[in-house]
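A reminder from the course coordinator: this example appears on the midterm review sheet, so study it carefully.

Given structure:
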């Protein structure tokens, strides 16, 4: 059910929902002041945690998360990234969601809620200030799903966290049941990479890629292709 809804969604679409009716998935990025994570690892954790919420057994029909996830996917898809550290990070662990850690970088994607009902522990967290310096990632881990970031578009780490989360979600319905089980056994491992412009232009025309086109609420123009999932 959830995968079918995801497969039918147009992520760039804007609809007529009023702001009070919009649901969002809060994504909390752990960025400690003294020991910040690497940008790539944080993005990979974000991609994995977002899809993990959607594919969690609790999101299945009859599960305690099903209605919240179903209502979110059926409406305007939105994710909001916020940064947390110390006791702030500890506090959000008590909220419904999934935390994924990759190479020391942790992200907790929370159960989608009405924007107007964002939990107090989340609402007080900063949206800005979540950027991190570009790093050089190592080899792609075995079994990881590749997510390619548009090399022509500058985006903050917070913005990209939401975009790669969209990509992992859009990719899931394209996989077979066996592939999904294998991916789940790897905690939905993703590898986020930035190709050259020439590589990007070649990838975007392939038939086996999933494209995320942003609605343009922040940082980029509406309809911008931000991430490709292979």
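Designed residues:
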């Amino acid at each position: 059910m959830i995968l079918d809804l995801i497969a039918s969604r147009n992520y760039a679409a804007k609809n007529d929902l009023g702001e009070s009716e919009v649901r969002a998935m809060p994504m909390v990025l752990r960025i400690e002041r003294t020991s910040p994570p690497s940008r790539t690892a944080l993005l990979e954790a974000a991609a994995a945690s977002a899809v993990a919420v959607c594919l969690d057994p609790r999101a299945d029909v009859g599960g305690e998360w099903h209605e919240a996830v179903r209502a979110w996917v059926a409406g305007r898809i939105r994710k909001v990234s916020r940064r947390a550290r110390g006791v702030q990070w500890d506090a959000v662990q008590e909220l419904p969601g999934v935390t994924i850690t990759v190479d020391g970088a942790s992200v907790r994607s929370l159960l989608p809620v009405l924007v107007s009902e964002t939990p107090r522990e989340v609402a007080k967290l900063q949206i800005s200030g979540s950027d991190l310096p570009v790093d050089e990632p190592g080899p792609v881990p075995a079994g990881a799903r590749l997510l390619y970031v548009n090399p022509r578009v500058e985006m903050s780490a917070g913005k990209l966290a939401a975009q790669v989360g969209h990509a992992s979600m859009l990719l899931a319905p394209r996989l077979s049941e066996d592939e999904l089980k294998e991916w789940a056994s790897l905690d939905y491992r993703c590898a986020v990479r930035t190709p050259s412009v020439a590589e990007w232009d070649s990838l975007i025309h392939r038939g086996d890629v999933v494209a995320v086109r942003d609605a343009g609420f922040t940082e980029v123009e509406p309809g911008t292709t931000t991430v490709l999932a292979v």
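The chain has a mean pLDDT of 92. Residues 2-129+139-229 form one domain.
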